[in-house]
Amino acid sequence: MAAGEEQSREYLRRHRLPELLQHLGALLLFHRPERPREFLIQVLERVKAGRRAEGEYPELMDEANVEAMFSLLDVLGQGHITPAQYREALKTLGLSAEDLEVGDDERITLDVFKEGVKKKLQQVMVSAYR
To answer: Which backbone phi and psi does 54 adopt, to 5 degrees?
Structure first.
């Protein structure tokens, strides 16, 4: 591999640009704004504010999406899901379920689910926008 190519790869890796571009692309496809350039500028401004702790990072899923996902998992309408369903939902969203502190006999309520998904998404956003 040529030195210039290796330097380019290192630059991309160090600045986490593939992750950033992937997330920006996902946001565009999810929201499908009429003015994509303005949308991206707004997203990057929110990222900048989030880094200064003046706002929140832009998220791919809003609260209504998370609630809809929970209701799909809670097919009997019991108001809770199993930890296995919770872990699988996180994996489906591309989020890590490794550090969950949830016992196998616990019931995951909507509030716990929403908070957990929000926390995991926030971790991904912070990591992607460093």
So the answer is: -105, 0
Contact residues for 90 (Cβ-Cβ < 8 A; gap 6+): 96, 97, 100, 116, 117, 120
10-residue mean pLDDT profile of the chain (130 residues): values are 88 82 80 91 81 60 82 93 91 78 87 88 66
Q: Identify which of 100, 107, 118 has the alpha carbon closest to the alpha carbon of residue 64.
A: 118
Question: Count of residues for the chain?
Answer: 130
pLDDT for 109 equals 94
Q: Which residues contact residue 117 at a Cβ distance below 8 angstroms, ignoring those fewer than 6 apart?
A: 61, 66, 69, 89, 90, 93, 95
